[in-house]
Design brief:
Elements lengths: L4 H26 L3 H9 L6 H8 L3 H13 L3 E6 L2 E9 L1 H22 L4 H15 L4
Antiparallel strand pairs: 1-2
Amino acid sequence: MTVDGAQLWTLNQRLLSAVMDACSGELAELGLETKEFFVLAEVAASPYPAEIAAALMLPRASVTVYVRNLVAKGFMRREIDDEDLRRHRLVLTAEGEAARDRALASLAAEYDRRLARITPRDRTELQRILKEMLKSPE
């Protein structure tokens, strides 16, 4: 049996979309659109808009819009970078951290609900496979 990479990619995309769809109500209650959530969740690892755009593979202009929205909602603020006064870092507010954490908990719960359908051994194998696939090509 041949495993088609495009089919696997499509299945993975469908799973991620199904999880996000199942959590859309929770995100809406928090006042977040899906892509705003991803930006909010990325700030700790990538505190500059250009880094967020690269990490999430989103256009910089889109990230700018999402950042403006998140600042207006009180989820993050811009601060001047002490190391380069020309740049602004993004920092989550307490409200932003709470919204991010609640949204992540919702996503984790939905994903866990789906993971419960497979054995612990298969979950461990899935984790190993995903980590292997995420490694940088050598």
